[in-house]
Amino acid sequence: MILLDKENHSAALVGTAYGVKYYGIEDGRENSFCRLRLNYGFSIDQFGDKEQLYFTCVAFGEKADYIAAVTDNAKPTLLICGRWEEREYNGEMKEQVVVEWVSVQPTLPATKKKREEDFSDIDI
């Protein structure tokens, strides 16, 4: 899911994190930095082929550290709110979201219990 308000430069995204690149202070940087692609769905073209849809996100400091930690050996679903921006890079216009808030979408554990078993200790 993606909600963009380009007029007010704000964005809210929900998607799976891919291609996370993290540069921490141990890499000689003054502030940690993270760039990732957030897959928020797919489109189907006229021939029925699926195309993955990605949005580029960048994070700094503690937010970058958090994203790096939760995406280490995993591809979690992230909830991201931030500032949408468009900038020129090598003669091309690029869109990205600068992360201002991030959280991992919780997942419910799989269970094999039947509903009746959940109430087996109750006398009726």
Describe the structure.
- Strand 1 and strand 2 form a beta hairpin.
- This protein has one domain: Beta Barrel (OB fold (Dihydrolipoamide Acetyltransferase, E2P)), CATH 2.40.50.140.
- The model has no long low-confidence stretch (mean pLDDT 80).
- It has a five-stranded mixed β-barrel with strand order 2-3-4-6-5.
- It starts with a strand and ends in a 6-residue tail after the last helix.
- It is built from two helices and six strands, in the order E-E-E-E-H-E-E-H.
- It is 11% helix and 54% strand.
- The chain has helices at 61-70, 115-118, and strands spanning 2-5, 10-23, 33-44, 50-60, 77-89, 92-104.
- With 124 residues, it is mainly β.
- The chain is globular and about 50 Å long.
Chain-wise SSE layout:
Blueprint: E1 2-5, E2 10-23, E3 33-44, E4 50-60, H1 61-70, E5 77-89, E6 92-104, H2 115-118
Parallel strand pairs: 4-6
Antiparallel strand pairs: 1-2, 2-3, 2-5, 3-4, 5-6
Give the strand tally.
6
Overall mean pLDDT stands at: 80
CATH topology: OB fold (Dihydrolipoamide Acetyltransferase, E2P)
Q: Which stretches are poorly predicted, pLDDT < 50 over at least 5 residues?
A: none
In terms of structural class, how would the helical and strand content be classed? mainly beta
Q: Which percent bin holds the helix content?
A: 10-25%
Largest sheet: 5 strands, mixed, barrel
What does the overall shape look like? globular
Taking all Cα atoms into account, the compactness measure Rg is 19 Å
Biggest sheet, spatial arrangement of strands? 2-3-4-6-5
> What is the distance, rounded to the nearest whole angstrom, between the alpha carbons of the first and last residues?
45 Å
The helix tally amounts to 2
Q: What is the chain-wise order of helices and strands?
A: EEEEHEEH
What proportion strand? over 45%
**CATH architectural grouping:** Beta Barrel
- Superfamily (CATH H level) name: Nucleic acid-binding proteins
Number of domains: 1
Task: Provide the CATH top-level class.
Answer: Mainly Beta
